Amino acid sequence: MVKEKLAGIDDEELVRRIIAENKTALFEELYKRYYLKVVDKCYSFIKNRDQAEDFANDILSKAYEKLPGFKGNARFSSWLYAITYNYSIDYLRHKKKLHYPNWNSENEIPDIPDEEEADLESLSYENLLKILEMIHPEEKALLLMKYQDNLPGKHIAQTLQISEDAVKMRLKRARTRVVYLFQTEFKKE
Length: 189
Known about the structure:
Blueprint: H1 2-7, H2 11-20, H3 27-46, H4 49-66, H5 76-96, H6 100-106, H7 114-117, H8 125-134, H9 137-148, H10 153-160, H11 164-186
């Protein structure tokens, strides 16, 4: 009966109740709703299922600790995914010593006219996944936050701790890199 009642309550209301009414047991419902999604997002970056599951537990614990800081300016899922992206990117930066500005300068791409950027009609999902593995994790996270999670630039900037102008510039660069890799790796003339 209680589970049925919780199923009808949105995430933001659960967070409000956890904080305002000190009903910490309600976090279990959020955990159940998001555990596998967080595992999948982590796995997309680190490619190790066991480690992704460990990361998901760490991330959800961290989210629980940070709940009082949840302002409700974005959906809970967006807030949680921002924590997930940061955790995964921080891990990769440390493990692989991937500093984005250095990586970007070492992986220059030519300028691509804007009209060519729209020429992705024949890009298959499988090839897109391959391309996302070829780009820097921060570029991948930017693209996923913008186009999969529909986060506004302001929230992306806060997540990655960069300016909104930097988000716009890096998104353009990431899209250009995807087009370039598509054209050089997969497009059949």
